[in-house]
Amino acid sequence: MILQGALIVIQQIFIIFILIGVGFLAAKFGILREEGARQITDLLLIIVIPCVIIMAFQASFEPSLIKNLLIAALLAALTHAAGILISKLIFRNEAPDRKMMLAYSTVFYNAGFFSLPLLRALLGETGVLYGSVFVAVFNLFAWTYGIRLMNGENGASKWKTFLNPGIISLLIALALVLFNIRLPDIVQTTLRYITGLHTPLAMIIIGCQFYLMWRNFNLRDLALWKTVLARNILVPLIMLALIFYLAQDKTLFFASVITASAPTATNTILFATKYRQDVNTAVQTVILTTLLTIISIPLIMALAMLLKGAL
User: Fold this and answer.
1) 234 FRET partner, CA 20 to 30 A, in 33, 227, 248, 290?
2) What is the full DSSP assignment across 201-263?
């Protein structure tokens, strides 16, 4: 059963990378250009992912899940904390500006674009529900600690912390649940059509980014490999121990392990550009950690299955 579960994980990751390859080829042959990729990214962030979060609660939520949702929020926060601790240890000798970018690449993981499609394929809507909590916590950290890290400010404004699509959609989803409101069938059907865009569009955009930026690679840069070690191996292993202790529910356990094992967040590139930081390093960490998840996630998941049993 463990071998079968590991093969399922590998199969789903291969499907994701085939979709990434489609995006790479679309960019190579001029079908998808940088401006179009930016617009599709906005579509995903502002419309598609919020619909994914709302539908996850509509399809899967039960009152008995409240405890698991709180545990998921705690585990999401601990995943960021583990990244912060590891980055302070292994990048302490880097130049200040480079240290900041490498730390960001370690702390912030691709909970939305990469993990949610994998969770849907492996664990269904309940897995997406737990993953959505990780996305919400990610947004809180990104708009507070992340901006301080990038910009050296004392923090983002309180309004900006909360007024982003991930948080707003989570609040809407929770309100619908608390007031026991089920969306009409016609609305749910519409949202399902929109959420169906999530996996292919997200992966195609990552593939497009790969094509636009792969020429900046410097595989002899030791700091990049330290980032891969931290983001793809050390953080997931630390979190695996904490998740095993805190998450008794099997779906929550695997959803948390998968999300904690995600590669560097694609918004690392967006924030680096916005705050005039080392975009070249941001590009390389995103691409390299994403490519190597095809090795790291199956290994982490195989270990998780040994601890908890097959999917």
Assistant:
1) 248
2) HHHHHHHHHHHHHGGG--TT-HHHHHHHIIIIIIHHHHHHHHHHHH--SHHHHHHHHHHHT--
DSSP 275: T
Whether the Cβ atoms of residue 249 and residue 243 lie closer than 8 Å to each other: no
Which tokens hold the place of 44?
């995903």
Q: What distance in Å separates the CA atoms of residue 186 and residue 189, rounded to the nearest whole number?
A: 5
- Residues 232 and 298 sit within 8 Å (Cβ to Cβ): no
Q: Which of 195, 201, 285 is nearest to 23 (CA)?
A: 201
Distances from the Cα of 151 to the Cα of 147, 196, 266, angstroms: 6, 35, 18
Buried b (16+ CB within 10 A) or exposed e, 259-287: bbbbbbbbbbbebbeeeebbbebbbbbbb
pLDDT in tens, 196-212: 898 888 888 888 878 88
Instruction: Give the pLDDT confidence of 78-99 residue by residue, as tens digits.
Output: 999 999 999 999 999 888 878 8
> What are the tens digits of pLDDT across the range 159-190?
555 667 777 887 898 888 888 888 999 999 99
Q: What is the pTM of this model?
A: 0.82
Gap between the Cα atoms of 97 and 300, Å rounded: 31
Token couple for 295 = 């090795």
| Res 20 pLDDT > 90 | no
User: Distance (Å, rounded) from C-alpha 77 to C-alpha 79?
Assistant: 5
Q: What angle is formed at CA 118 by the lines to CA 228 and CA 53, rounded to 5 degrees?
A: 110
Q: How many CB atoms lie within 10 A of CB 171?
A: 13
Euclidean distance between CA atoms 70 and 267, whole angstroms:
25
State the Cα–Cα distance between residues 6 and 304, nearest whole angstrom: 10
